[in-house]
From TrEMBL:
The gene is thrB. Keywords: Amino-acid biosynthesis, ATP-binding, Kinase, Nucleotide-binding, Threonine biosynthesis, Transferase. CDD domains: HomoserineK_II. It catalyses: L-homoserine + ATP = O-phospho-L-homoserine + ADP + H(+). Belongs to the pseudomonas-type ThrB family. This is Homoserine kinase. PANTHER family: AMINOGLYCOSIDE PHOSPHOTRANSFERASE DOMAIN-CONTAINING PROTEIN, AMINOGLYCOSIDE PHOSPHOTRANSFERASE DOMAIN-CONTAINING PROTEIN-RELATED. Pfam families: APH. Pathway: Amino-acid biosynthesis; L-threonine biosynthesis; L-threonine from L-aspartate: step 4/5. It is an enzyme of class 2 (transferase). It comes from Sphingosinicella xenopeptidilytica. It comes from the Bacteria. The keyword Transferase applies.
Amino acid sequence: MAVYTHVPAEDLSAFVARYDIGALVAAKGIAEGVENSNYLIDTTRGRYILTLYEKRVDTADLPYFLALMRHAADGGLPVPRPIEDKAGEPLQELSGRPACVIEFLTGISVTEPTPALCHAAGEALGRLHAATADFGGVRANALGHEGRLELAAKCLPRAGEIDPALAALIETEMAFQKAHWRADLPQGTIHADLFPDNVLALDDTVTGIIDFYFACTDARAYDLAVMHGAWCFSNDGAVFYSQRAEALEAGYRAAHPITAAEAAAMPVLRRASALRFLLTRAWDWLNTPPGALVTRKDPMAFARRLLHYREAE
Ligand SMILES: Nc1ncnc2c1ncn2[C@@H]1O[C@H](COP(=O)(O)OP(=O)(O)O)[C@@H](O)[C@H]1O
Ligand SMILES: N[C@@H](CCOP(=O)(O)O)C(=O)O
């Protein structure tokens, strides 16, 4: 359940009145999502998403995320445009939290994507990379190579509470990444979390790319590696679907080239991405207090992906 901050109805009405979007007629909390509180709001003029940014998002990064979303929307991507208030300001405060209203986009997130949707999603990523090539914003990846190694070291002492083999898996992967990570791959603006639940689709057509709150500047090909892990396995990581992977890469190549160096680095990037999601899930698994309204995601689902990548070499 991702409504951490509950906003009283009268505050919501007053908040909506700051914008030129009509009067509030309905609002409901959205259960999906992990990081922030989201409300679906209907006004006399249309439908919008209201996001209240919770503690895990650094307020200083919000102007970067909102500028990136606007840039991508201006570039023709199906990315929700942040709505400005009557004074031209997209970033607000509500119930003691930074808050923003963004466009509502139609579509649903699928859990078992077809190869056709994988193709469309890969193409959408390629288009996003092309459209953001001239985006001026820069944000370091807190979960980049160094960040992953730091988080790995923090997870190691208690990894055995999740699975007896997990500490060894993390340790050996840290050694591999230290030896093989390449810092010289083409850099760009990456989404960094383009899982199926962050893509809205209708009939194998992508209608929305959402949740830019991990976006950053990093190796462009890493973004495709993230999608490989997120889109091409069963949810528990036990089954790899090669047709999805072929379609994903073909879709990306239809919109953006992959250099020879990027293609050669892909096995390392995929392992790095599997490690990243294994680690953040493990950290949350070990540190989410009982009774928190967050659904913890299974770290072992990404341990299995990591093992698959190792065995595929
Ligand atoms: N612009 C949008 N249009 C339609 N639905 C959206 C939009 N943004 C978010 N949502 C809905 O809200 C849910 C949570 O949003 P998300 O940004 O993924 O939250 P979180 O950052 O907490 O993970 C999504 O799964 C989707 O159902
Ligand atoms: N995609 C990550 C979790 C991040 O959650 P999101 O709702 O912000 O996409 C994972 O699956 O571990």
